[in-house]
């Protein structure tokens, strides 16, 4: 039980990214349509599908690593996959933050920071 805080943070990140990846996959066209409008005045306006795919890949990797990290901590008391999951989560959130700032969506950016804080805590606790 020494790592319960880390496990809880990894579960939070896993839920966040697995659910988000699922939404992006199941509603791809809706997401592309909405994001084209969201980013129409930014430098990435012509690369929205590629950017969305990159975010999808990062989210899926983050979610899988966080789930694997929880299992690894609970079974072997080893933190390797959890640390990688937390790091990937931070990188993913930084990409999302960059996009929100480019789109001048400051409320969206603030929401990303709310997720970033526990992700950084997970990196700190797992390293």
Automatic annotation (TrEMBL):
Keywords: Membrane, Transmembrane, Transmembrane helix. It comes from the Bacteria. The chain crosses the membrane at residues 50-74, 81-102, 108-126. This is DoxX family protein. The lineage of its organism: Bacteria, Pseudomonadati, Bacteroidota, Flavobacteriia, Flavobacteriales.
